């Protein structure tokens, strides 16, 4: 049994200090018996920090059990905790092992109660490193907060089952099928992260195949995929002749998009430092491409002429600058087409180009696919992609421009 010490008063405890070596003069931790319970000590560090330690024997092993810091734990409180420890030991319980078990149990309970909203935030903190564009994080956050959070946001991820997923998706499964598909996929990812992180076990209730599709129906059977409306290529020459009569910058942006077969966003975000007029090449950086890879676009003479004649706005790096400055919105091109009474989208002209190339030219399919910056996993097309086929693509785009001009050429004749 530890030696019984004199019981110190609260005032005496406050005055206790650290120890100093008589030989080196260096300060070190001091352990002061305070009495009341055999083995109860106050530890004082050189910084003046004080804490309680209960030294005793548990099952033949010497133990030093921390009882908390002073003054958060008072002298009376420390003596009470030490007596509790002594009673546990006498009952055959190791206070340290019991404390560790309680801590593990608390952690396990916290794991079980992690909410879906908290899991989504933690998952996105990891997932955001993969996103090329910060707006993708916002898109994930918006869809989950709009559709998932009201139903399962406050639920523990360990408790989410298929009926809860159905409750989230059912209101939009038939009316907003594409959105519902995104929501389901994002919920599935969050729950998959929660599973591998140890917050839940079992099957993923947001899985589509033989799961959500059985409860709500297959998305492909509910609503056909909506494709961008394209102008038939036979109508393009007449459309281009009318488009060139319009002086607006939005008309030049659309004309440039058609002549390059580029995506609307790539054209609207184009900047002057991406253009090499002497080489007639437009190099779109990877961070603006859907595939995440830089893309070189050979420019036909008509496209180069647009660039040479388009007015430059002071303070704007964009080639096609909106009237109030900054980048054009996609709505501007949509409004232009609406004014022209054309039932097609700006993106749809890429399909117009593809149909024309496939049906009216003898170029290999890979040439037009590269012109469209389509990514293919096929090994043969990957080999084509490495060379980029710039020369063949330049010829193809020149023929495309000639076809687009054919109405004007006939009129002049």
Give the helices and strands, then pairings.
Blueprint: H1 10-15, E1 19-20, E2 27-28, E3 30-33, E4 40-44, E5 50-58, E6 61-70, H2 75-90, H3 95-112, H4 116-127, H5 135-152, H6 162-173, H7 177-196, H8 208-216, H9 219-222, H10 236-243, H11 249-260, H12 264-268, E7 275-276, E8 281-284, E9 295-298, H13 301-309, H14 330-339, H15 348-360, H16 365-371, H17 379-387, H18 390-404, H19 406-412
Antiparallel strand pairs: 1-2, 3-4, 4-5, 5-6, 7-8, 8-9
Helix- and strand-based class?
alpha+beta
Strand elements, count: 9
Largest sheet: 4 strands, antiparallel
| Sheet with most strands: strand arrangement | 3-4-5-6
Domain Tyr recombinase: 226-397
Keywords: DNA integration, DNA recombination, DNA-binding
Pfam family, one: Phage_integrase
GO molecular function, one term: DNA binding
């Amino acid at each position: 049994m530890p030696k019984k010490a004199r019981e110190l008063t609260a005032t005496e405890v406050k005055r206790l200090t650290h120890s100093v070596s008589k030989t080196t003069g260096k300060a070190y931790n001091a352990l002061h018996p305070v009495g009341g319970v055999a083995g109860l000590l106050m530890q004082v560090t050189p910084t003046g920090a004080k804490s309680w330690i209960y030294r005793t024997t548990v099952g033949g092993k010497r133990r030093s059990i921390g009882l908390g810091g002073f003054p958060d734990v008072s002298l009376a409180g420390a003596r009470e905790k030490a007596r509790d420890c002594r009673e546990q030991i006498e009952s055959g319980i190791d206070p340290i092992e019991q404390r560790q078990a309680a801590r593990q149990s608390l952690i396990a309970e916290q794991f079980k109660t992690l909410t879906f909203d908290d899991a989504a935030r933690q998952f996105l903190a990891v997932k955001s490193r993969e996103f090329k564009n910060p707006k993708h994080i916002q898109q994930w956050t918006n869809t989950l907060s709009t559709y998932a959070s009201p139903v399962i946001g406050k639920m523990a991820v360990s408790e989410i089952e298929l009926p809860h997923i159905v409750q989230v998706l059912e209101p939009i499964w038939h009316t907003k099928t594409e959105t519902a598909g995104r929501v389901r996929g994002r919920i599935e990812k969050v729950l998959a992260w929660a599973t591998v992180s140890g917050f839940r076990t079992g099957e993923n209730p947001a899985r589509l195949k033989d799961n959500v599709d059985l409860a709500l129906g297959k998305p492909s059977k509910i609503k056909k995929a909506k494709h961008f409306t394209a102008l038939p290529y036979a109508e393009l020459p007449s459309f281009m002749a009318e488009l060139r009569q319009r002086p607006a910058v939005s008309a030049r942006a659309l004309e440039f998009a058609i002549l390059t077969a580029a995506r609307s966003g790539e054209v609207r975000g184009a900047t002057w430092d991406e253009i090499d007029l002497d080489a007639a090449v437009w190099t779109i950086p990877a961070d603006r491409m859907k595939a995440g890879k830089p893309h070189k676009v050979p420019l036909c003479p008509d496209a180069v002429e647009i660039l040479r004649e388009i007015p430059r706005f002071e303070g704007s790096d964009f080639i096609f600058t909106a009237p109030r400055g900054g980048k054009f919105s996609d709505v501007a091109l949509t409004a232009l087409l609406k004014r022209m009474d054309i039932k097609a989208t700006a993106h749809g002209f890429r399909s117009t180009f593809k149909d024309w190339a496939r049906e009216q030219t003898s170029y290999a399919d890979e040439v037009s696919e590269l012109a469209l910056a389509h990514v293919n996993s096929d090994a043969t097309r990957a080999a084509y992609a490495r060379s980029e086929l710039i020369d063949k693509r330049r010829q193809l785009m020149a023929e495309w421009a000639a076809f687009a001009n054919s109405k004007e050429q006939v009129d002049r004749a």
